[in-house]
Amino acid sequence: MSKTKARQFHIHGVTREGKTFRPSDWSERLAGAMSSFRPSGGAGGIGAFIGYSPYCVPQVVDGVRCVLVNEALKGIEPMAWDFVMSFARDNNLPVIEVFEPGAGEA
């Protein structure tokens, strides 16, 4: 039995009205708030707070700030997933599924 790969989504930093979302470091702030959610067995200890979670990573796509969110976050902490998705909804930010090149090809 093959395990289905978790989907990934970009929270796009331009509102549905076409305005750039502010503040300019919103993506880093959101990803920073999610930084403690890591895969089980992830590195712990004194330096564990440094860096972003692999489930919520700030990015720039075509010159627009985004946050890449992995659906696996929902399985680790459903409330964290709800927080991130509610943030996008409440701020009128599009959530776009990311499709990997070649995905779904046999």
Keywords:
106 residues; alpha+beta; Alpha-Beta Plaits; 4-stranded antiparallel sheet; 3 helices; 21% strand; globular
Give structural notes:
The protein is an alpha+beta fold and 106 residues long. The chain has one domain (8-39, 48-98): Uncharacterised protein PF12112 family, DUF3579 (Alpha-Beta Plaits). Helix content is 25%, strand content 21%. It has helices at residues 26-33, 72-76, 78-90, and strands spanning 8-12, 56-61, 64-70, 95-98. Strands 2-3-1-4 form a four-stranded antiparallel β-sheet. It is globular. The two termini are 16 Å apart.
Q: What is the second-level CATH architecture?
A: 2-Layer Sandwich
Instruction: Give the CATH H-level superfamily.
Output: Uncharacterised protein PF12112 family, DUF3579
Pattern of helices and strands: EHEEHHE
CATH topological fold name: Alpha-Beta Plaits
Averaged pLDDT = 87
